[in-house]
Amino acid sequence: MSQFKRLLVMLGPQMRHSPALQRAAALAESSGALLDLNVFVDDVDTFGLMGDSRERERLLAHNRLWLADEAEQLRSTGLDVSTELLLTRDPLGSVLQQAERLGCDLLVKDVQHEPVLKRLLVTPLDWQLLKDSPVAVHLVSEIRLPLPRQIAAAVDLNHHGNAEQLDDQVIRSAHALALQCNAELHLLHVCDAARTHIADFGAGTVTMPGFDAGVRTAQRAAFNRLGDHHQVDLERRHFLEGLAIKAIAGYISHSRVDVIVMGTHRHDALHTFLGGTTSHVLEHPLCNVLAIKAVR
């Protein structure tokens, strides 16, 4: 039984058979979930560039036709599909409103890789969705196969606030997805002793002998208890060390992982995944993230 019953796919006016659409269709086929295809057309008129009403109508008509054709093809495979085209000046607000109105429990979207300079000036939509979406978000960058074959649940053993409960949510969600897709379940944690100390004691410098070794020992023991509790095979447990950003990037590059399942808090999504690495993880060209919302 799938944990997701209704999938909302957020597409742009130039999207076609994108990785997110392929992934969503495969998930819906494997679970019997409803599939909502929504194309969001940004109607912001910047310096008159979008002021040509005839060009806008042509774009909308073209997308309506594509949506109708795509829905017909998907329905022919047995999927339950609905479609909608939305002209909006607030893509974030519109997609959040759609998710609530339709009762979706998973939002699927292609990762939008933004230039560094633009990220400094404007918060990327993907980051905003991680922060504000009331439902789980699957951001898809690249897929080897329509359904994932290797899924890694990333946990944070520093356990500030309700992190321990969130770790459990992440593992349970990853396990459910692995069962649905007949995929391998892996467990991942990055031990960054310096970050652990800063989180616990402030920005001061530690000189106590053996501190790093003590942190590693404690976290490795907690990691193995977690793996034992959730019955994750030893060879599928990955206890990494160092800076989270580099460690995860290396893991993604040298493994066959298809999806990393992580946890986010709605109030502070960019600072809850392994020391604030969410945004950097999304920038990896091979990484697909399933972000699970913390239960309040």
TrEMBL record:
Its main location: cytoplasm. The keyword Magnesium does not apply. Keywords: Cytoplasm. It comes from the Bacteria. Residues 4-140, 167-293 form the UspA domain. It is found in: Cytoplasm. Belongs to the universal stress protein A family. Required for resistance to DNA-damaging agents. PANTHER family: UNIVERSAL STRESS PROTEIN E (PTHR47892:SF1). This is Universal stress protein. It comes from Pseudomonas fakonensis. The lineage of its organism: Bacteria, Pseudomonadati, Pseudomonadota, Gammaproteobacteria, Pseudomonadales.
